[in-house]
Amino acid sequence: MTLETCSAMLQEHDPDRFGAVLAAAPQSRDKLLTLYALNLELARAPFQSNEPMLARMRLQWWIDRLAEMGQGTAPPSHDVLGPLWQVWGEAAGSLVPLAEARERDCAREPFARPGEVLDYVNATAGGLMWAAAKALGASDASRDAVLAQGRGQGLAAWLGALPQLQSLGLGLLDDQPQQVAALAQAGVDALAAARAARRTVPRSAAAALFAGPGAAGVLGQLVANGGDIGAEIAAVSPFRQRAALARLALTGRWWVWGIPASTGACL
User: This protein's superkingdom (predicted)?
Assistant: First the structure.
């Protein structure tokens, strides 16, 4: 039950957020580290069984443990819940909605409408980013900016994984390119809205809003190619990854400049 375990998980499975943790103020890193490790566990819990009922039971275990922590009950020995309890204490109970947002994954059903995808992304990626930002000092004045940034980041991640999701029957019921392009445009608009409201976000919360250097590119390219998920998306170079994290650490800049829909996106 150590923070090193959470760090290793994040470094392997969520390198963008791991980089953001390292760019955060030292006193904030443990909260982000344990929160993001929890998010990894919640994201994969519904997929540890092919049976929807068993998947729901596995997710419910996490919901129950977080709820108990919120009532002051220490969790059982666990590589993630132990450090989470040490760092968050009873405040871990506020993270129950992040677990509940994953209930839809247990059903193994595709999304019938783009609006359902937006609701899912708002609850998962948006909820996670808001929890992280609050832990780093963001107030309600920042909420709209944080949730918009989370929506943009979440849509980029979901759309980037859409070919794999479609093959598993977990993507869009109707994956017409115009549906995909509309979701990508919604992500572009969300990142732009977050940038416009950036002054409401305190510098202390900058690391929580980092969306990774490739998020805007995924969205912009899908808009530009009309929502063709079969088209190759340009990968982010290691240099750009390092540059984005260095800029975050040195300047606190988490927002994206220039997301032209016709030519792709750039940071």
Answer: Bacteria
Statement: the pTM of the whole predicted model exceeds 0.85: yes
State the chain's maximal CA–CA distance in angstroms. 53
**Could you state, in order of their start, the residue ranges of all structural domains in the chain?**
1-105, 109-267
The full 3-state SS of the chain, as one line of letters, equals: CCHHHHHHHHHHHCHHHHHHHHHCCHHHHHHHHHHHHHHHHHHHHHHCCCCHHHHHHHHHHHHHHHHHHHCCCCCCCCCCHHHHHHHHHHHHHHHHHHHHCCHHHHCCCCECCHHHHHHHHHHHHHHHHHHHHHHCCCCHHHHHHHHHHHHHHHHHHHHHCHHHHHHCCCCECCCCHHHHHHHHHHHHHHHHHHHHCHHHCCHHHHHHHCCCCCHHHHHHHHHHCCCCCCCCCCCCCHHHHHHHHHHHHHHCCCCCCCCCCCCCCCC
Residues 6+ apart with CB under 8 A from 260: 220, 266
Summarised one tens digit per residue, pLDDT across range 34-68 is: 999 999 999 999 999 889 999 999 999 999 999 99
Nearest to 25 by CA among 202, 205, 199, 245: 205
